[in-house]
Amino acid sequence: MTTSEETLGAPPVRHWPALRLAGVDFDPVLAELMRQGPINRIQLPNGEGWAWLLTRHDDVRLVTEDPRFSRAEVAGRQVTRWAAHFAPRPGAMPLADTPDHARLRRALAPAFDVPGIARLRATARRKLEATVDAVLRGGPPADLVARVLEPFAVTVICDLMGVPEADREDMRVRTRRILSSAEDAEAGERAEREMTAYFAQAVAGHRDSGGEDVVSLLGAAVGRGDIAAEEAPALAASLQVGGEALTHNTGRMCFVLLSRPDLVARLREDPGLRPRAVDELLRYIPHRSAVGLARIAREDVVLHGVRIRAGDPVYVSYLAANRDPDVFPDPERIDFDRVPNPHLAFGHGAHSCVGAGLARLEAELVVDVLLGRVPGLRPAVPPAEVCWRRGALFRGPEALPVTW
């Protein structure tokens, strides 16, 4: 239970190495930290010093809603972190606090709100079906990642962003470098600079276009003075990277379903269950490695009898929160009948994922189209032989061989 009275000393600092995890294995270090208690101190492979880690569902919600914990104050600090280059620059939306964060999100609302995602659904489905049809014409076997999931995710986010066909392959390569810890830090930083420069030029050329894509919306917002010209490129880059990372989301879901014929059978028998199944898979699947971005305590805060001092870095774990047994009974089991399901796969509070609707859309379409168009879809290799991306911030299969 969270208390406001300091009764305990600080726990020891636990080193959290970058483990090479495959499939949907839950990080054993995180599991041990959860068992040790609701509040821990961790040291990650890069950066300096240590940080607090909170793992309980209620605590994660509290910290992500509480203005006493700031994202903006992380800028310029070498906080301990998972990847050497994964330190967003000042001005990026992930590092903005209220009211700046709300101002930046407003500029994007027409692309990511419910009507915007609804406009995208029909077009996205047509493109996905055409992609699957091409795979079926080629005959089995096929790599589901290379032939369907990656092209679909890249197409959808580039359509939404307004990135033309000629630039999409370069954008895909930059995204992979940014999302990888296997690349050296300079390669990741160079890819970030290149992507930011690309969007700076694109936004500047779309101030009067009147389009509904993100680049046009940002151009119009800069023209109105709602956001600064230097804010728009970093904002666009973070959305592009996040959108292409959806390949990993759908790849993990397909891996789980293909490994569990019983789950596939239920979804074939009851198509109405599919949206709820997607939510449960989002809760269950570890969608990233370690933790995301830190916050900085603006003042002393006591949680669970332990004092977090002003200036201390604080991490929350959405992965751990989604396995909190006080909120999710039998959390290690995939349960499509789990209601309610207040998972935090898309974060919580002001910094919850702006693309949550897009992620659900892609996952639901992939499940619907694959189950509907490829009734005999099954793995072409045993689950243990599936190769997983090495050093990726977001976990996903490198390839997913299937047949039908």
Count up the helices.
Answer: 14
Give the C-alpha Rg.
21 Å
How is the largest sheet built, in terms of strand order? 1-2-3-9-6-4
What series of H and E elements makes up the topology? EHEEHEHHEHHHHHHHHEEEEHHEE
Stretches with pLDDT under 50, minimum 5 residues: none
Structural category: alpha+beta
Average predicted local confidence, pLDDT: 92
Q: Could you give the distance between the termini?
A: 51 Å
What percentage of residues falls in helices of 4 or more residues? Answer: 40-55%
Strand content is 5-15%
Care to count the β-strands? 11
* Principal-axis shape: globular
**Oligomeric organization of the protein chains:** single chain
Question: Which key phrases capture this entry?
Answer:
46% helix; single chain; 14 helices; 404 residues; alpha+beta; three-stranded antiparallel β-sheet; six-stranded mixed β-sheet
Question: Could you describe the 3D structure shown?
Answer:
This protein has 404 residues and is an alpha+beta fold. It contains 14 helices and eleven strands. The strands form three sheets. A six-stranded mixed β-sheet has the order 1-2-3-9-6-4, sandwiched between helices. Helix 1 (28-36) links the parallel strand 1 and strand 2 (39-43). Helix 3 crosses helix 8 (214-224), helix 7 (185-204) crosses helix 8 and helix 10 (246-259) runs parallel beside helix 14. The longest helix has 25 residues, at 114-138. The mean pLDDT is 92.
